[in-house]
Amino acid sequence: xxxxxxxxxxxxxxxxxxxxxxxxxxxxxxxxxxxxxxxxxxxxxxxxxxxxxxxxxxxxxxxxxxxxxxxxxxxxxxxxxxxxxxxxxxxxxxxxxxxxxxxxxxxxxxxxxxxxxxxxxxxxxxxxxxxxxxxxxxxxxxxxxxxxxxxxxxxxxxxxxxxxxxxxxxxxxxxxxxxxxxxxxxxxxxxxxxxxxxxxxxxxxxxxxxxxxxxxxxxxxxxxxxxxxxxxxxxxxxxxxxxxxxxxxxxxxxxxxxxxxxxxxxxxxxxxxxxxxxxxxxxxxxxxxxxxxxxxxxxxxxxxxxxxxxxxxxxxxxxxxxxxxxxxxxxxxxxxxxxxxxxxx
Length: 345
Ligand code: NAD
What we know:
The protein is of the alpha/beta class. The chain has two domains: 3-64 and 78-128, Rossmann fold (3-Layer(aba) Sandwich); 146-343, 3-Layer(aba) Sandwich (Rossmann fold), CATH 3.40.50. It has twelve helices and 13 strands. Strands 1, 2, 3, 4, 5, 6 and 7 form a seven-stranded mixed sheet that branches. Strands 10-9-8-11-12-13 form a six-stranded parallel sheet, with helices on both faces. Helix 4 packs across helix 9 and helix 9 (288-298) packs antiparallel against helix 10 (302-310). The longest helix is centred in the N-terminal third of the chain and has 21 residues, at 53-73. It is globular. It binds nicotinamide-adenine-dinucleotide (NAD). Nicotinamide-adenine-dinucleotide is lined by residues 118, 145-146, 149, 178-184, 201-204, 207, 222, 236-239, 258-260, 286, 289.
């Protein structure tokens, strides 16, 4: 595939996919709408230095479908979509690119609504908003989603503790936290308040040290976090980190964190299950960010937003119950849970 000015791409199972190039700025991006069955498609904008347009297309398709499932499982009246921008961040006129992106989003006339994701920030969304109303996730339009994501992840860790140990009290439990970024740091503070002990790691050594200082945590090297003696492993960095190399090393009884697409493949889910580790499906756990953006779009109050975040606890317990009933992995049960909602729509 080669992106020219505007190309529509047909892919089975997707409602609309458009690739766009803005000749004036060199901007290139793809927006994929997977489903609007539950409402307008909502999903973030990822900015990545993809090796090819095909790689970008594969990523946006996977992510857009994931948003349909995440939004459905969170009980939101929104469908799933995603945007990717293709390029190297250091070589562009960033403001011009995000204005071009805003114009691209505006073309969808509200059928697609976006916000920040990997490689983009609330500030970028504020620039895109000069061209479109259909963007959220910055001051005045829902704010930074990360603190809400962290709160939702804490609810998910507690639900998982209840499922695994019969109590959601985290006092004295040890959490090995991978990634002390926006979500990881906020989660570390919440866990400390909940009485948990922490072991943290980050490839950015300074971030790990600052986080450890704030939470009385121990720091280990990034590669050693998988071997840490812990009750819970909380991945809050990158996707694909649960795989045949890492899962045999884990000592935790629960895996529950914010990172998207933690499982490299289905085999990883099965290997985790076989080891008797409870895996909290990531898209159920990390829905707090999209829930906070949705609260802005729906005009919900702070109390309604807090209620939706709190419900992540019960949703996760329902997913665990479904996994037991259907004798599947918790990852498969999470998909089945979302599909039930989509079928009922
Ligand atoms: P972030 O970029 O602020 O933080 C990620 C941190 O992980 C950084 O400090 C980075 O240095 C560190 N890191 C990267 N690779 C690492 C490795 N191999 N080992 C240890 N640390 C490593 O990102 P974020 O917003 O905190 O998001 C974290 C994860 O949660 C991502 O996977 C993101 O997709 C997911 N997520 C975030 C939100 C949100 O609201 N921000 C919502 C849903 C999902």
